[in-house]
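Shipment paperwork, digital attachment
Item: protein structure file
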Amino acid sequence: QVQLVESGGGLVQPGGSLRLSCAASGSIIRIYAMGWYRQAPGKQRELVAAITSGGSTTYGDSVKGRFTISRDNGKNTVDLQMNSLKPEDTAVYYCNCNADIGGVGGPYNYWGQGTQVTVSS
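Attachment content:
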């Protein structure tokens, strides 16, 4: 169906930057939107940023002005540039893809396995 491969997570100091990437593959007919969510220990999963195939973006309040989401529709990829990172940004970040799938229909939501981002000195 759909596979999401995430990369770019790791350990960074407060104030530093990190760039996450996600590549979608499979029998994709159309992607309506892709985005990033995160989940910290003891907290619910929350929206970080999302972008539609047309380029409209949505950001969580806590990351506005610091994070930027972008996409390459031809390659079915989405990136998240994270600047001015804070300790509270520490979480597992999950890639999300909302798409129609060949032989299945849709739209359906698909999730990556998650990549750890740790902001600490």
